[in-house]
Design brief:
Distance between the termini: 36 Å
Strand content: 25-35%
Number of strands: 13
Structural class: alpha+beta
Number of domains: 2
Shape: globular
Order of helices and strands: HHEEHHHHEHEEEEHHHHEEHEEEE
Low-confidence stretches: none
Number of helices: 12
Mean pLDDT: 92
Amino acid sequence: MAKINEGDIIEGIFTIAVALYIAEGKVNKNKLNRIRTQIDPAFFATGRVTHTVAKNIKKQLPNKRADFFNVGFEMRLKPKSVTGAFGKGYQVFYESARDVGNINKKVDQLIRSIEATQAGRQIAGAVNDFLKNNKPEIVDFIVIADGIEGESSGGEIKGDVTLSTYVRSKSGSKKIHKGTIPFSIKSGSATVANLSPYKGMLDIAAAMKIKWDAKKTYSRLSGSFSGSKEQKQKFKLIKSMYSDLKKEIGKISKQPNFTETAFAFLRKSIFGRDLANVVDVREGQIKEITVEYFDKLSKTTKLDIQEKGNNLVFIDKQTKNPIFQLRTKLREEANEAKFYLEVATGIYSR
C-alpha cells in the first residue's frame, strides 16, 4: 500500500464533520465513519466525489419562520495518500494495522471540541444568519475539500476546505459570499510552507525587503546536480546561502519597520489571499490560528530574532515567546534538501 498522509485524511474527515455539524448541530462518530465507508478514494483520480448528508431538513428558532436546509459535500483528495482511510475497507485497515497519525483519537478530539472552536462558531454563525432573519428560505450548504486545487495555486490559496452557501429562489440559486468560509486544515503540523531552499530563501528575502545579490551569487542552485561530487557542492552552497540569509535578517532586525515587514510576510504565508483560518487537529486539542487574533498580535508585538541550533526563530521581544521560525532539513546521504517556514506556540489563538 502506498504511504498515506494523515493531513489529507484529516482534511476529508473535517469536511464530513462540518457537514454533519451544519445538519445536526453536532457530530455523531458512527454517522461520520459510515460516510467514510461510502467514499471510494479511487474516484478522486477523475474528480470530486459528491455526497448528500441531509435534504430538506426543517430548521427554526422560537418565534421565527422556518428555513429548509440541504447539506452536502464535494471532496477530492490524493487517492494514494488516503487509500485505507476511506472506502469500504477502511475499518479493516485500521483494525489490522497501526492507526497512522492516531486518526481515531483526532476524530474524537474534533467531535469533542468543534462547538468550542472558532471554526465551529464561524459555521454556527453562517447557519444562524438564516435562522435569525425571519425569512423562509431554502438554503444549500456545500462543504468543498479540494486541497489539490489549492496546491495548483502556488501557495496563494490556503483553504483546504471551504464552506459555500447558496440560497434558492424562483430565478435560481444565489451564492452568499458572506457564507463562504475557508479553512486551512492541519494534523499536528507547524509547517506553513515547505519550500525548495534556493527559491524559498529568495522569496523570503524579497518579502522582507532584503537587498541581497543571492540570486546571482547562488545561481548554480537553480540548475541540476548529478553525481556525488556535484551533490556535495549543492549542499555546501545551500548551507552557505542559509548562513548568509540569517546574517541579512540579523541586519534588518534592527530597523524600525522590521516587525511590520516580518508580520506582513507571515500573514500572507499563513492565510493566503483567501484568508483561511488554520485548524490544526491534534490528539489532545484543537489548535487554531485566526486572522483576527493574528492582526491583534501583530499590532501589539515587537519581534526579535534568536538562533536556536540551526533554526532562526522570530520571538516576541517582550515575552520571549517564539512566533515563527525558519528551518532547513539537509540530508546529504539521502539527497534531501528542504526549507521550512514553521509557526510556533506564540501564534496560536487557542
